[in-house]
Specification:
By secondary structure, the protein is of the alpha/beta class. The chain has helices at about 35-50, 100-115, 150-160, 190-205, 220-225, 245-250, 265-275, 300-305, 310-325, 365-375, 395-410, 435-445, 455-460, 470-475, 480, 490-500, 505-510, 510-530, 535-570, 575-600, 610-620, and strands spanning about 10-20, 30, 55, 70, 85-90, 90-95, 120-130, 135-140, 165-170, 210, 285, 330-335, 350-355, 375-380, 415-420. It has an eight-stranded parallel β-sheet with strand order 10-9-8-15-14-13-12-11. The protein has a seven-stranded mixed β-sheet with strand order 1-7-5-6-4-2-3, with helices on one face. The longest helix has about 30 residues, at about 535-570.
């Protein structure tokens, strides 16, 4: 019998003699002290067995031969509050934990074993517990794509099955505020009811839904409205700082709220009053990252007197007091405060810093600075799925692993894996699953084996025991290496895909050899996806999205190869015109498929951001029709 292929890999797994065989009559027996939470976990296990197994509740000291028993044990330092002990023997299965959360995680492991082995489970003893008490996912819902509620509920179920216990949704303007209805206009904004239902769903799956709302930088989608323009550091009259014109060139007008405007705090208080009561979590992410133009406009004089770092920290302290009115303690991104290390010890001890960085060469030693200051913090890597046709998988895995190692070494209390959607959020949900599950594993067990992860991902996520799908996903992700033009926070293939045909610079920077390598890799991945049989409707959607990514990658390589041929050709003959026409037809088809895939899981929101990029590329191809 094969070795178990689990995600996350357990801390300790020992093979034991014999095999346990379950049937549709095998009872699932709750502990005498079990409550509703354990019944829910048992129902998930029952569903994995086919939905017919009886669920019973034992009396004290009762043992039913051949059954699956849930048992509560005294709190153990070796297991902790989230750990569990799973013992599979021919005579039965015993799942022990000190909390309902531990029972739930043991059930997730048992379900994965059933998915792999079916009715005959190998004898095992698994002692398991997490390296990080908080294992989160931060999902962008405001850069163009707003998921349907059903998509978010499904996201929760998937994440919980890999022992994720925190979810945050990044919101700038995509929430419907009663007092400020313009903020979410035209963006398919999430409703209060959506958040309430999502919060309830998260609690069932032992996930903490933490509210997240931009409260300093990244505010231009709100301050574009005249009602809020006066709240910005630059409301169109920025003239104080010598680098103000540079800020304009970077399109920073309205980017940051100004601490010099008292009404800013009344405005934030009104947003918080509507938003925060929807969440049962006592934590709140106020964001406050990338305040690039702070101190350049209305707060220029204050910054000269007090120092820019102090102006930033004062704003954090003010919104901390606002959040406290609603029973929330705050967390915020740590990029700005890291520039002023002398101020880090002044951060209140109930505040959590979010230490982020998304490249494999990131300075992970920043974790030491937070530990030295004695503040709470999470490490925050990313899936590298944004600004890409398909994730920069090599970068994502290295970034996640190195942050996890640094976080464990320097006492981080959590790992929050980020999944952004820069530039229109054309990176579809399925593209991120490899990075999300890899992050879930490293948050649970930093030392888990990397060499088997792709195979385990293919098995547990796509139901593929052959290992081919996991390798195909990796191969498609590594087309970002094949192209041979590394860039920070972006894939060159994305540039080529969207830039005008035979006009953009990146089509010519890539070598013919590397473009052909990209084309072959995407074709090989596509061939594997074509013969894969999805196990569910959700997996059919995931697979369709991966096929779309492979086709888009192939289109991009062909586009660049043809552009390079065109540059070397003195005369555009009929053959080249026919190839350009075929490329245009292919892009029109990709455009239609993109819309179908988008609407299957998402609201209309701001799909136009991506469609306009594709349309510009189509116009450039149309120039060669005659």
């Amino acid at each position: 019998m094969n070795d178990p292929k689990l995600i996350p890999e357990p801390q300790s797994l020992k093979r034991m003699p014999g095999v346990y065989e379950w049937t549709a009559r095998t009872p699932i027996v709750l502990a005498p002290e079990s409550l509703q939470e354990d019944l829910f976990a048992a129902a998930l296990l029952q569903n994995a067995f086919g939905g017919k197994n009886p669920i019973l509740k034992a009396t004290p000291d009762e043992h039913i031969p051949g059954a699956i028993h849930f048992r509560y044990v005294e709190k153990s330092e070796r297991l902790g509050p989230q750990g569990y002990l799973l013992v599979i023997e021919p005579k039965g299965i015993t799942l022990s934990a000190s909390t309902a959360q531990g029972i739930f995680y043991g059930v997730q492991t048992l379900i994965q074993l059933v998915n792999q082995f079916g009715k005959r489970l190998p004898g095992l003893s698994i002692r398991d517990f997490p390296d990080f008490p908080v294992r989160g996912v931060y999902h962008d819902v405001c850069r163009g794509r707003v998921p349907k509620l059903q998509t978010l509920l499904h996201l929760v179920e998937e994440l919980a099955s890999y022992k994720i216990n925190m979810l945050q949704l990044y919101v700038e303007h995509t929430f419907s505020f009663r007092k400020h209805p313009k903020i979410g206009r035209g963006a398919s904004a999430l409703l209060p009811e959506d958040m309430l239902r999502l919060d309830e769903h998260c609690r069932k799956y032992h996930i903490e839904l933490v509210p997240s709302l931009q409260s300093f930088g990244h505010m231009s989608k709100i301050t574009k409205w005249k009602e809020y323009r006066h709240l910005a550091e630059d409301d169109g009259q920025l003239k104080y700082h010598p680098e103000a014109e540079m800020a304009r060139r970077r399109r920073l007008r309205g980017w940051t709220l100004s601490p010099a405007v008292p009404q800013v705090y009344d405005f934030l208080d009104e947003l918080y009053a509507e938003f925060l009561p929807l969440f049962s979590s006592t934590r709140f992410n106020v964001c406050c990252d990338e305040t690039w133009d702070l101190g350049w406009g209305k707060s220029y004089e204050i910054a000269k007197r007090r120092g820019l770092g102090r102006v930033y920290l004062d704003h954090i302290l003010k919104i901390r007091r606002l959040a406290a009115k609603y029973g929330k303690t705050i967390m915020f991104w740590g990029d700005i405060i890291l520039k002023y290390p002398e101020l880090i010890p002044k951060i209140p001890k109930d505040t959590i810093l979010l230490n982020w960085g998304y490249e494999k060469e990131h300075n992970f030693s920043t974790c030491a600075a937070f530990k030295k200051a004695g503040v709470q913090y999470y490490v925050c890597p990313g899936t590298s799925s944004w600004n890409s046709i398909f994730p920069r998988m090599d970068n994502a895995c290295a970034n996640i692993l190195r942050f996890a190692r640094a976080g464990k070494r320097f006492s981080a209390s959590g790992l929050l894996n980020t999944d952004w959607g820069n530039g229109g959020h054309y990176n579809l949900l399925s593209f991120s699953w490899h990075g999300l599950l890899y992050g879930a594993e490293k948050a649970w067990k930093v030392a888990a084996k990397d060499d088997s992860f792709d195979e385990r991902f293919g098995l547990q996520f796509f139901g593929d025991p052959s290992g081919r799908v996991g390798k195909a996903v990796r191969r498609l992700g590594n087309t970002n290496l094949d192209i041979g033009l590394p860039r920070r926070n972006v894939s060159v293939l994305m540039y080529i895909y969207f830039e005008p045909f035979a006009q953009g610079e990146w089509q010519y920077k890539a070598s013919v050899r590397n473009l052909k390598k990209v084309l072959r890799s995407a074709q090989k991945a596509r061939e594997v996806f074509d013969v894969t049989k999805p196990s569910s409707r959700a997996r059919r959607q995931d697979l369709a999205e991966c096929i779309f990514a492979a086709d888009t990658t192939m289109h991009t390589a062909k586009k660049a190869l043809l552009a390079k041929r065109l540059r070397r050709t003195a005369k555009i003959d009929r053959g080249i015109k026919d190839e350009i026409s075929a490329l245009r037809r292919e892009l029109k088809h990709l455009r239609r498929r993109f819309q179908e895939l988008w609407f299957a899981r998402n609201r209309r929101s701001e799909i136009s951001i991506t469609l306009k990029k594709i349309d510009r590329a189509l116009v450039s191809l149309a120039k060669y029709r005659h």
